[in-house]
Model the fold of this input.
Amino acid sequence: MPAIVLDGVSRLYGSNVRAVSDLSLEIPDGSFTTLLGPSGCGKTTTLRMIAGLDSPTYGTIRIGDKIAFSLEDATSLPPSKRGLGLVFQSYALWPHLTVAKNISFGLEVQKVGKAEIAQRLEKVAAALQIDQLLGRYTSELSGGQQQRVAIARVLIMEPSVLLLDEPLSNLDATLRMDMRAELKRLHNDTGATILYVTHDQLEALTMSTHIALLQNGELQQFAPPLDVYAQPANEFAADFLGNPRINLIEGRIEGGRILCGGLDLPLPDGVSSGESGPVKLGLRAEELRLHRQAGPGMVPVQVTSVLPTGSDWYYQVRLNAQTITIRQNDPPHLKEGEEVFLAAHPDTLKLFATSGKALVSSVPEVAGAEA
Ligand SMILES: Nc1ncnc2c1ncn2[C@@H]1O[C@H](COP(=O)(O)OP(=O)(O)OP(=O)(O)O)[C@@H](O)[C@H]1O
Ligand SMILES: [Mg+2]
Done:
């Protein structure tokens, strides 16, 4: 049984703000599902409706075998009856209690034994690297430390479903990397269902088992991260995931071939041979290559910029009056102004209709999801 099911959920504010629009989603039990999308796309609103802190204007929400919200059944379970652990973007810690007290308070209320509390506290504090801070007051902590205390306070309750809204946003880059690995490990160890909100595509790619990508309150794609990356359902999905951003170039299909600024490629599998007309090509930087020697299907280009990062070399060239970026990490390293040859592989190429929709017959989806 899925852990959480949203069926046709919408949240309207006033008459013209559609924060969430007809969202249907089945969050698999035990998954690490990320709600991903730009600021204002409806992530927090969705999480608040699942938690019971806000109510849908339309639609049904089920959590496990319970109906959490349904207008027809006049049901709206209070947050405390939904069996969820929550960490929100704005977390409130008690400033007059120590870190240890803040974290263990929930277990004390539940009358859990002292030894058990001490043991769980030690474990969770070590995992979140706050074991040195347990005696301090939370008013004496940095933002990042407070954020970790807020996470610890929820984790210690060992909830079977955990909702996390941008829980790592206040941490510096190194600590954020550590915490990502730690959250992923906690997910594996506990088997809990995690519903995680972020606007950071790298965070979503590295941690999740499933990504639900949102734009303007609408679901764009629901699939495992590498499937969204490799087979984006539309131009938005292709553009939102990946760094550097995918190269999107105007081209056309003619006589069963893809033509674009001198590139002439066969249609990839899954694209109907009857297609023709203008398309957009999606070419990821690491799926393109620059060669010093010409070869079949390659197009001559000039290197306009060379941007070494230490591990990778980013090159820019002009194709079809657009700048495109290529990532390579093996020598020979090219120089600015060099005349070279660009190769693209039809297998990894993404094609989008003028509507933005991917031109493939089957984009992988998680069963039961609608896009
Ligand atoms: N109480 C409210 N009244 C009116 N509009 C609201 C309200 N809460 C949210 N919205 C609007 O709903 C949309 C979705 O907001 P939401 O907070 O869910 O976005 P988000 O994806 O969490 O963004 P962020 O990444 O910035 O946190 C936004 O356009 C926001 O302005
Ligand atoms: Mg938000």
Q: What stands out?
A: The chain has two domains: 4-232, 237-352.
